[in-house]
Amino acid sequence: MRSSTSAPPAPASVSRLVGATVLAVVVLAVACALSIAYGSRPIPLGTVLDTVLHPGRNDEVGLIVLGNRVPRTVVGLLAGAALGVAGAVMQGVTRNPLADPSVLGINSGAALAVVAGIALFGVSGTAAYLPFAFVGAALAALLVYGIAAVARRGLSPVGLALSGAVVAAALSSITTAVLVTNASLLDQLRFWQVGALAGKDLGTAGIITAPVLIGLVIAFGLGRSLNTLALGDELAASLGQRVVLVRAVGGLVTVLLAGSAVAAAGPVAFVGLAVPHAVRRLSGPDHRWTILLSAIVAPALLLVADVIGRVVAYPGELQVGIVTALIGAPVFIALVRSRAVRGL
Hints:
InterPro entries: ABC_BtuC-like, ABC_transptr_permease_BtuC
Protein name: Iron chelate uptake ABC transporter family permease subunit
Number of helices: 13
Organism: Curtobacterium citreum
Radius of gyration: 20 Å
Number of domains: 1
CATH superfamily: ABC transporter involved in vitamin B12 uptake, BtuC
CATH topology: ABC transporter involved in vitamin B12 uptake, BtuC
Order of helices and strands: HHHHHHHHHHHHH
Subcellular location: Cell membrane
Membrane topology: Multi-pass membrane protein
Number of strands: 0
Largest sheet: none
């Protein structure tokens, strides 16, 4: 077991980083192909390619590929990239290896706000969900930080994780209570509340594209600042880093990305926790490469999980949020038990 006083990992070579990026892109391309080709009805890749290149066909295959699988794949790409990068930024800003939008209750806050918007104001559609998701995510983040700040464990990694778990459980319970007392609302959102890509269209992807891209661009720009922040607040400040500003921008990016993902696909869990840890083994301590690789690997994981959910529950479907939770929960437990959880 690694000592908490061990030296930080050495930066990876540029050739290794470029190779890891190329490999990640290939994996993502394969995940996209699987997402479009496989489901309750497998379709040969050649037929898929012909359908995508000639979108005018109106037969059953055309409806399945263009009307169902391509839109859910595009939404999966955007939501996955948003969740992966949100997790990477959160871990860098808080120097907390347990930070993740689902673990710290941000996804739960966004989900509750969306449900409240539907129940109280009758909003409908992803465009209407977005502002509620942003507000809910921001309030949840502030609540978790406030609880952790006054708790005995303080703002330590485990302290933040415990505060996030409490807030997430409380908010999820309230969301469930609202849903079970409203039959029509429960029927409308029973799949969305666990995280789902089924039933999405290109309109949903179009609505979240702008906030996700804005969040990704800002996150990439934060990479160098997060590297400096990893040296510690005092040293970062002595090097001219505006620590409070970096943390504020990082929080804004997290809310923007997590809120967009929740509005489109529901509160998908653990993608932002597992992926940054996996890619950091390749990228080393450089947050610029960690963020880049997270933006590529996270959507690949989400799409593969979506395909698994379609295949294992045939002829039905296991929602993607359930599959990612099954994948991510053991990772979370391993991290909590590790001495490396002391900080990044």
